What does this fold into?
Amino acid sequence: MFKFTSTKIADVIVVEPQVFWDDRGFFMETYSKKEFENAWIDVEFVQDNHSKSKKWVFRWFHFQTQNTQSKLVRVVSGSVLDFAIDLRKDSVTYWEYIVEELSASNKKQLFVPQWFAHWFLTLEDNTEFVYKCDDYYSPEFDGWIIYSDPRLNIDFEAIKKKYDISELSFSEKDKNHPSIDEFFSNNPF
It folds into this structure.
């Protein structure tokens, strides 16, 4: 059994599995095609990914301009702040974003549909993040948006203060993503 809760962007859904605990530990289903379809999440996942990161690693706003991917994301060790930005030009929530804290302890998952930019910030060392995708990774169609563009209206200073973050860690590639204006001028969605 799952609980499906829409976020302020209706197509982005928090998924909470039923967890069965006993003195040995716990058991839970993390995905059921039938239950997801009953909740109007009708995708066929074809690829699973798994990453491990140290504390304060920021994996920026990634998406694919073709072979777009829906994702079902969760944390199996540690915790993250998980963000999704609506890139659909015709959407009433175009350019709005959600943020959800996902952790090994709360066991929440987040369904992020196609045509969204997605990223996460790890809050603990040895955070392991796993996600299912409904299309294959296609590096030739990689797209990004720089996290620090002020037009995102994400208060990173408040986030840093709340979680006592001294310094963020990210890849060299992530330092040179395009601005929002550059994205707007060439939005493939």
